[in-house]
Amino acid sequence: MHSRSIAVLLAFPATCSAEALPLSVRIVSGVGGAVPDPSEKLVRSGTEVRLHAAIRAGNELISDVPRVVLKPGGPPEASRAPAPRDGPLRVRWFRVEVAGGSYQNTDPSFHWAEIDYRDVSVPGCDDRLSCAADVRATILGDRGGLGTGAFRVEVSLGDRTGSSPGAERRYRGGLTEDIARVTVRRDDTYLGRLTELFNTPYIWGSAGEPARLHQAERRIGSDCADFVAYGMRRLGHDVPYTSTWQIERHARRLFASAGPGDDGLYRTTDGKPIPVGEGGVHPGDLLLFPRHVGAFVRDEAPLGVLSTSDVLIHTCWAPPVEQSLADSGYGRTSLKVLRWMAFQK
User: Fold this and answer.
1) Where are the chain's structural domains?
2) What is the mean pLDDT of residues 142-157?
């Protein structure tokens, strides 16, 4: 048997009576003119990713594009459009959204917390074999079209039906890799990479070995320290997933403050305001609080000094968000400003 035939059999189980069994359905996705395949797409904001339903009906592959790849690393296969002889075509698309904002892996002992996922219909794509990937979450709330989204499609063709994998497919509490996913980042900077974890939940004690199987690396969820480490790893730096009490092994301290004054300004022990900008805090610097960490995003009035009105990105018993220090829950505590050592090489 040819290797291509074996690949087809693995992707879509063969039977002697295909018409009597459910359709085998997968979602493949493509960017630009590339042949759609099942891999997760990680793209910058503004890049369109199209999802395509690939349907195995007997010995034929049906899709709205002439070729698709059904298995990661596999060869392209020819497909055809549905024909009247196939019977009526009905298609329903869904986002597989996270329904809970926070989970924990550690109480009473370590375990993989089962994340609650819900199907959310995408009615604008009904009865179409392709759909633009829209990762805007409706349950956790939209973060400007950024973050990670998962998708499922149901297909009826004549009297046969089938569905692509969905929330029933789990690995270590999250979704398996065979579920169609698209991840959109703001830009290619460190902070931009952190926005890839929008739409994922906070997981106290997020974990996974080796690092490629970590829950943050798989864009399943993260705690605060793993969240800030994720961005560095996505930039190619060998920063381990770690904890707030170990993060100073990988970052240099720039400033420390006992907390903001009545005017909202953070000052060092000699009473000088912590500067923002040249010689001071930069976007992407870490703000380390007692048992919590986030990354500095931007300066807000009063400009040029670190204050509770400035914005950080973090996750703390809630999905990742950009918000002011005042609104973060840590606007009255001490802090240290750190800079990743990898940024200073």
Assistant:
1) 3-185, 247-344
2) 98
